[in-house]
Amino acid sequence: MIASDLDGTLLRNDGTLSPRTLRALRAAEGAGAEIVIVTARPPRFVDRLAEATGLVGTAVCGNGALVYDIATRTVVSSRTLPLTTARRVATALAAVVPEVGFALETGNQVLYEPAYRLRLCEDIDAELPVPSLADLWLTDAPVTKLLAWSERLDADTLLAAARHGAGDEVQLTHSGGRGLLEISAPGVTKAGTLSMLCAGRGIAAAEVIAFGDMPNDLTVLSWAGTGYAMANAHPAVLAAVPVHTVSNEEDGVAHVIERLLAGTDRPGSDRPGADGV
């Protein structure tokens, strides 16, 4: 199995999948590998990518909250965040970071209160405002993530503050968004969901090659038999993951796949060079 993050990893900075990377993925599938997208993004982003590229298969979305069948556009399984937990964590975090704003990701929409002023132009049709923070907790939609955003603090600082304020009640991480913290149900990680997916397919961790660039990818990169950090990865990821590939702008995922299929490299090689440390 080849498991890859999307933004900053499989996709270029403009959000597109390059022809070279698409060819490499097709070649890997032709050689018998299963391709699984493992992303913080919701299914609607995966749908757009599939429409543009023809990719099918399985995606782990929402940092592990959802398993999604791309071809049928069906959520196969989900691990949602209880609304009462989301509200309790938001209250605790707001006490530590008073200016923080909150939103709820449901997989279909982002519900946001007035203090949450982060807007994604590519997701504008899915963003739905509510009049106040109190109204945010009235939804009956399943919640895949609580999003916390600070205009003043970067994501790493906000993550540290949340760990102090929220404790072990939820899973905290970030995927590089400016001042954006992603909060899931306890124990929900990319690696946890991918490992369950692999167990159902009879695939061992040693048979998984993973790619990522941000702190939310660390669980997968450390769990997989071989985890590759992109050259453009977050400093914490580059420090924690011993094997690197070239950047997403240089088709780093394709670079590794091509070498593996050509027999000029092996998973986990630490040989100096484009894919070595």
From TrEMBL:
InterPro entries linked: Cof, HAD-like_sf, HAD_sf
UniProt keyword terms in alphabetical order: Hydrolase
Gene3D superfamilies: 3.30.1240.10, HAD superfamily/HAD-like (3.40.50.1000)
Pfam family, one: Hydrolase_3
CDD domains named in the record: HAD_Pase
Keyword Chloroplast in annotation: no
GO molecular function terms attached to this record: hydrolase activity
Top-level taxonomic group: Bacteria
UniProt xrefs under NCBIfam families: Cof-subfamily
Name of this chain's protein: Cof-type HAD-IIB family hydrolase
